[in-house]
């Protein structure tokens, strides 16, 4: 057909495409707002110096968009706030405890619930009741507090994640999966006598929020059954993991997130939880166990460190808000919007050629600091430097997840040298809008294309434990 010169075909095509476009939006509207403040570059420079170039030490008031963590930073719903008014603040036997216990049993399937003040409280108790000096704990990559408590109880952590998880460019739908051959050889070498449990995290935070497949978890379970070793789940972001299974694993697209979560947790013997993530609350956690005798031990220990076994460091209203938060977190449309927002930011950055960990994770986008500063040695803390530069550029606060977070070997005292040298842009749940994501992406682009690159940082103060929280730095002189 001859072209009709009166009609602009390009425009028509675009309009046609626009017509077909169907967006989804968040399944909520905003009822209350909290003002945030933009600062000047001079103010941020001063704040950064006062904070020793550590984003953990910056005052929140000096932050514009806070992507430090998704931990305890979620927005609660009106239904959760209403639940806060129904707090039963009895010292013992609060009705909110029983509601939380029933909710965890319903969605995670665990028999016994021991509440704690947050995730690390549960990790502490689990490690103390299961682990002795000389043990080893295999896990799919470490998490800072989890490994600390395992080591504190006398164990050595052994990484059994698929080796490609340490490569930020490697694409795999389930990059949190266990290398089953490695697990089997560890099980054979140390046996039940020295392995208190296999420590599974889903999703895997330090790998970039990467999920574990149902199939892999089933195989881990079978291997562990054969060797008589229990499997404990870090269930902190297990609902996000269930969403990825629904989206990516054959045979699961017709199942709800809630059904998948239950099926997944049934492959494990218990779990630790930081309620500050998936469960949509600002504080709280729990340890869940199916074994009666072990639960008895945990109940006995929780009174020493956390509080009575029916509150474990949480108030009645906190427990009610968490029970309601769990109900909301397992809704498919909630999860689509939650992970969808993270993907929106990640896809924008990828479109602009910015190096991030792929695939995009569930709770955060991870910038690959090595590729921002290819000439900077790891000893000059590229990720810590990048987090500082990003704050300086726009007041966006992020977190280092590289050599500073990895800490030192407990035996040799040498720095761990992780392959992954990352900056995490962590998205709080139900807090920021698409416009906040745009502003963040534009700031990352401006730091990525900076003509004068920083030289890096030197550490001037190093705390003994979990150093990334409180370490202080000073910039290396620019040439
Ligand atoms: N496990 C995972 C996978 C976590 O991400 C965290 C906390 C914990 C356990 C510990 O829980 O903070 O309640 O004591 N992660 C936060 C973060 C701190 O920023 O990723 P907690």
Short description, anyone?
By secondary structure, the chain is an alpha/beta fold. The protein has 17 helices and 14 strands. Helix 3 packs antiparallel against helix 12 and helix 7 packs parallel to helix 8.
Architecture overview:
There is one protein chain. The chain has 479 residues and is an alpha/beta fold. The protein has 2 domains: 41-70 and 332-475, Aspartate Aminotransferase, domain 1 (Alpha-Beta Complex), CATH 3.90.1150; 78-329, Aspartate Aminotransferase, domain 2. Helices cover 41% and strands 12% of the residues. It has 17 helices and 14 strands. A 5-stranded mixed beta sheet has the order 2-8-7-6-5, sandwiched between helices. Strands 9-12-11 form a 3-stranded antiparallel beta sheet. A two-stranded parallel sheet has the order 1-10. Strand 3 (136-139), helix 6 (144-152) and strand 4 (156-159) form a beta-alpha-beta unit. The mean pLDDT is 95. It binds ligand F0G.
Number of strands: 14
Classify the beta-strand content into a percent band: 5-15%
Class of secondary structure makeup? alpha/beta
Helix content: 40-55%
Biggest sheet architecture: 5 strands, mixed
Q: CATH H-level name of the largest domain... which superfamily?
A: Type I PLP-dependent aspartate aminotransferase-like (Major domain)
Bound ligands, each once: ligand F0G
């Amino acid at each position: 057909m001859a072209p009709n010169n009166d009609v602009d075909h390009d425009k028509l095509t675009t309009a046609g495409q626009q017509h077909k476009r169907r967006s989804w939006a968040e399944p909520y509207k905003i009822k209350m707002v909290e003002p945030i403040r933009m600062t000047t570059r001079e103010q941020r420079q001063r704040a950064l110096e006062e904070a020793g170039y550590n984003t953990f030490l910056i005052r929140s008031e000096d932050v514009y968009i806070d992507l430090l963590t998704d931990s305890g930073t979620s927005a609660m719903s009106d239904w959760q706030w209403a639940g806060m008014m129904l707090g039963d603040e009895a010292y013992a036997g609060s009705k909110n405890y029983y509601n939380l216990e029933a909710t965890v049993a319903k969605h995670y399937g665990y028999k016994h619930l021991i509440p704690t003040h947050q995730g690390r409280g549960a990790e502490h108790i689990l490690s103390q009741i299961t682990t002795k000096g000389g043990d080893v704990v295999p896990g799919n990559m470490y998490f800072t507090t989890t490994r600390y408590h395992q080591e504190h109880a006398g164990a050595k952590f052994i990484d059994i994640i698929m080796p490609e998880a340490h490569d930020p460019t490697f694409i795999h739908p389930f990059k949190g999966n266990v290398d089953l051959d490695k697990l089997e050889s560890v099980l054979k070498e140390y046996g039940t006598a020295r392995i208190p449990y296999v420590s599974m995290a889903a999703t895997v935070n330090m790998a970039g929020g990467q999920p574990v497949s149902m199939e892999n978890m089933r195989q881990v379970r079978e291997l562990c059954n054969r060797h008589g070793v229990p499997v404990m789940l870090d269930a902190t972001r297990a609902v996000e993991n269930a969403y990825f299974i629904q989206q990516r694993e054959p045979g699961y697209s017709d199942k709800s997130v809630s059904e998948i979560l239950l099926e997944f947790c049934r492959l494990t013997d218990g779990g630790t939880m930081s309620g500050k993530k998936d469960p949509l609350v600002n504080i709280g956690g729990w340890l869940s166990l199916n074994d009666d005798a072990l639960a008895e031990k945990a109940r006995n220990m929780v009174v020493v460190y956390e509080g009575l076994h029916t509150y474990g460091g949480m108030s009645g209203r906190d427990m009610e808000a968490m029970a309601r938060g769990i109900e909301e977190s397992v809704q498919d449309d909630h999860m689509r919007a939650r992970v969808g927002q993270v993907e929106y930011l990640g896809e924008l950055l990828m479109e602009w050629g910015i190096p991030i960990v792929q695939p995009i994770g569930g709770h955060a986008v991870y910038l690959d600091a090595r590729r921002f500063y290819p000439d900077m040695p790891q000893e000059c803390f590229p990720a810590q430097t990048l987090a500082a530069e990003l704050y300086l550029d726009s007041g966006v606060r992020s977190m280092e997840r590289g050599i500073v977070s990895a800490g030192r070997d407990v035996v040799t005292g040498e720095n761990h040298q992780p392959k992954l040298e990352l900056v995490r842009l962590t998205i709080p749940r139900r807090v920021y809008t698409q416009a906040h994501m745009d502003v963040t992406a534009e700031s990352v682009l401006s730091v990525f294309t900076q003509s004068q690159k920083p030289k890096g940082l030197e550490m001037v103060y190093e705390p003994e434990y979990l150093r990334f929280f409180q370490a202080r730095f000073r910039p290396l002189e620019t040439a």
